[in-house]
From TrEMBL:
It is a multi-pass membrane protein. It comes from Halobiforma nitratireducens JCM 10879. Coiled coil: none annotated. Belongs to the binding-protein-dependent transport system permease family. CysTW subfamily. This is Phosphate transport system permease protein. One of its GO terms (biological process) is phosphate ion transport. GO terms for cellular component: plasma membrane. SUPFAM superfamilies: MetI-like.
Length: 309
């Protein structure tokens, strides 16, 4: 009795199922991409529509050159956005001066010096900082950072730019260190071994080989962290205050663009009023600033990218 059996031909049914699955997956992926793009466009449309109403009553010259911001004043409202931009840049620059050097040195340590056991502990610990709610950072600034500043600088107020810059620097530190470490770790070991073969020390390999080779990723990490600092809201609202002014003293109270948006969004400004419409003008200005930073980040990555075989 023959035991041979004819093979079961499932190729046609399998192809049909595979084609159907590929088609469904294609439309699902397209729908996700479409929702992302549509959401972005909707945000832009809302901001532009509200900003058009604002600029129909306030000139561009007054908005971008004025040094007094008091849109809800009853007698003589002023719409010069420079104090808010200055406060935002003060927080951003201050936080970058903290996060960039500390984050870069941390990344070098994790990539070149730390043992695998230490790296497994230190890197996740740093990344936990990114998951802490920003309002917690704000209370940390009020309850710890500001009292420390007042100990060394008695004239420091409860709300001040230095406290906001320090706490935002702590917030963006994990982004700098993690992304920079990823860029350094992607550098081929052949470059390190070649440098060691020429007699270079570990410090020389880290600074003269690894850093230049991973420059594009490191610069992208800097720019993304700065973009995060520009858009930070709750921490600077609690730490830096709500006084729009142009000052070079980091121990004085200031107000950022995002802090003003929180003030208007949760305040008593009536819908349709010029004070309420200023919310959209500030939002559009902030959107353009962060958009330009992201475009610059992509240019840096493409300009300084190193490719290895």
């Amino acid at each position: 009795m023959s035991t041979d059996t004819e093979p079961l031909d499932l190729s046609r049914d399998g192809n049909d199922v595979g084609t159907l699955g590929d088609t469904v997956a294609r439309y699902v992926f397209f729908a996700c991409a479409f929702v992302t793009v549509a959401t972005t466009l909707a945000i832009i449309v809302v901001l532009v529509d509200g900003a058009v109403d604002f600029f129909s009553q306030v000139s561009f010259v007054e908005y971008f050159t004025g040094t007094n911001w008091s849109p809800r004043a009853a007698d003589n409202p002023s719409f010069g956005v420079l104090p808010l931009i200055w406060g935002t840049l003060l927080i951003t620059v201050g936080s970058a001066l903290i996060a960039i050097p500390v984050g870069t040195l941390t990344a070098i340590y994790l990539s070149e010096y730390a043992s695998p056991r230490v790296r497994k502990v230190v890197k996740p610990t740093l990344e936990i900082l990114a998951g802490i709610p920003t309002i917690v950072y704000g209370f940390f600034a009020l309850s710890f950072i500001t009292p420390v500043l007042q100990t060394f600088f008695p004239g420091t107020g409860t709300f001040n730019a230095a406290s906001g810059a320090i706490v935002v620097g702590i917030m963006i530190l994990p982004m700098v260190s993690s992304l920079a470490e990823d860029a350094m770790s992607s550098v081929p070991d052949s470059l390190r071994n070649a440098a060691y073969g020429l007699g270079a020390t570990k410090f020389e390999v880290s600074t003269n080989v690894v850093l230049p080779a991973s420059l594009s990723g490191i610069l992208a990490a800097y720019i993304l962290a700065i973009s995060r600092a520009i858009g930070e809201t709750m921490a600077v609202t609690l730490a830096a205050g709500a006084l729009p002014q142009i000052t070079t003293n980091p121990l004085e109270e200031i107000q950022t663009m995002t802090a003003y948006m929180v003030e208007i969004g949760t305040g008593d400004a009536s819908v349709g009023s010029i004070g309420y419409q200023s919310l959209f003008a500030i939002g559009l200005t902030l959107f353009v600033m962060t958009f330009l930073m992201n475009v610059f980040s992509m240019w840096v990555r493409s300009r300084y990218r190193e490719e290895y075989q």
